Amino acid sequence: GAAVSRAHFKDVGARHAYWCVACLVAISLTNSMQRSCINFMYTYNTEDATKLQDPDFNIRVAVGGFDNDAYALLVGDSMSFISALFVLFTGGLSDFIDRKLLLCVSCFFWTLCTYLSSFCTEFHQLLALKIIGTFFSAFTGPCSYSLLTDWIVPEERTMAYALYALGVQFGQPIQVYNVDMIDILGWKATF
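^ that's the sequence the OP posted. Answer follows.
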């Protein structure tokens, strides 16, 4: 879509545009939480010895083949490289397809991959869902920044970009709540 004109920005209102920015920030926060789930699940530790042996609370007990090497594959440099390659593809694609639709579809499918991860019993299943989820997650940045350019007038964009970036930054400190969710609900429900 074309960038917003000043007249349209005034007609629609900056308030509406910033509500849209708030939605993008919420998507960014959710994405950050979901991407970090696996890290907290693998490193989950508790003083309750029964939970450490319980497959409902300890993903290492529940998912076959999920050892240190497998964990490194899911959260390490190789997954970052895969994600970076996907962003190159998804960034270009977001210029040709309706960005709002693309963002909604990608959010649905990355969330579906996260949800389906709760049913995994073998590492290869978890790996496949992580790669597919990473593909769909890779749409959020390009689509979001493009939508910000579409919705916000040039003199307001720096603030809009900064607010969106806060979603990623605020997502980091709230990720630790994954541990509380695992401790209360178990790893499957946390996904």
